[in-house]
Amino acid sequence: MRQYDLDEIIDRKGTFCSKWEFMPGDDPSALPLWVADMDFACADPIIEALHARIDRKIFGYTVYNNPAYKEAVTGWFRRRHGWEVKADDVFFSPGVVPAICYLIQALSQVGDGIVIQRPVYYPFTNSIVGNGRKVVNNPLRYENGRYTMDYADLDKKLADPGVKGMILCSPHNPVGRVWSLDELKKVVEIAKKYDKWIISDEIHFDLVRKGIEHTPLLKACPEYRDRIVVCTAPSKTFNLAGMQLSNIVIENPEYQKKWLHVIGDQNSVGFANPFGITAMIAAYNESEDWLDQVNAYIDGNIAMCREFVAEHLPRATMVDCEGTYLVWLDLRAYCADKEELEEMMLRRAKVALDEGYMFGEEGIGFERINVACPRSIVRQCLERMAQVLEGK
Length: 392
Ligand SMILES: Cc1ncc(COP(=O)(O)O)c(C=O)c1O
Description:
Elements: H1 18-21, E1 31-32, H2 44-54, H3 67-81, E2 90-93, H4 96-107, E3 113-116, H5 123-130, E4 134-137, E5 141-143, E6 146-148, H6 151-159, E7 163-169, H7 181-193, E8 197-201, H8 217-220, E9 228-232, H9 235-238, E10 246-250, H10 253-266, H11 274-286, H12 288-312, E11 317-318, E12 326-330, H13 338-349, E13 351-352, E14 354-355, E15 366-370, H14 375-389
Parallel strand pairs: 1-13, 3-4, 3-7, 7-8, 8-9
Antiparallel strand pairs: 2-10, 5-6, 9-10, 11-12, 12-15, 14-15
């Protein structure tokens, strides 16, 4: 097994890197732990496969719909998630957020309502509103540092005939929940009662903490397969976000037709980036050991955060992180004003984080910290925060 040095600091400046060069606050002295990509080098098989592909010298239109691509995806689902998916049910999209937009266009009409569970990944809101649909919020419950779903409210929201479906974030960004089988079944039970579809965004499905198991929604509830679409990608898992490639699992033939109409006829999306395809195949077929090491390293970063918070930020609550590499920190005991907290982080502590309010008003007073980076950087970030919040 190859050993990766995840403590290595890699200079990303000069690569048009969003995280390090285009950060909120535009202050080069700030430490960026915001946008969700990793500061770790990619797995060796990915780098080697890309070098070999570059040596072929021509980068023309490239077809994703081929057996090697499909086998890499379905093989990953089977090995890693015990999830059997037919090759014909896997559809390419240049990203999960674009896929969510296409699905909204395919499965609803202008003016329809779509349920989301805030505080949640803010592009859900943009995709719904930008396509002329309405956000219907089913806020998560937050009690004793843990988030759960409010099923009674979900029932009320999905009962509305103007609401067509919901976007589930599973695992949930930013609150870090990996929904249990029981929780997933309850959601499906309610959706089924009113015949509503569920788009399950599972982009973080491979990033789960030790001892925690993620279940793809189609695996959890195969009896509701006609109303479920699952969005997956190698991008978060293998740090390939810039490759713009994701895999959408659609089993209902009617939904497949609608999808093909929206992406093909309406938006002319068809060809994938040749580097994305090459990288994904090398990732899924040859890079599992890298992912295991990365997940273990992130476990260590999260444990370090927990110890640091207990010792140096005693009034903060760190929400349990079961999945993703995002720490969701409740700082309301220090500052409950969103502008003031943002100013404290960006201008005084000089850390560029995702501000909690961006995920909905339920997130005011929280900060989201991306810990998929060398431990020394996470440590520096926390020290800068403690200096401002506790004067340490
Ligand atoms: C829940 C969730 N969905 C989608 C995305 C982005 O997906 P893509 O870059 O494939 O559009 C992210 C990135 O942070 C995410 O956290």
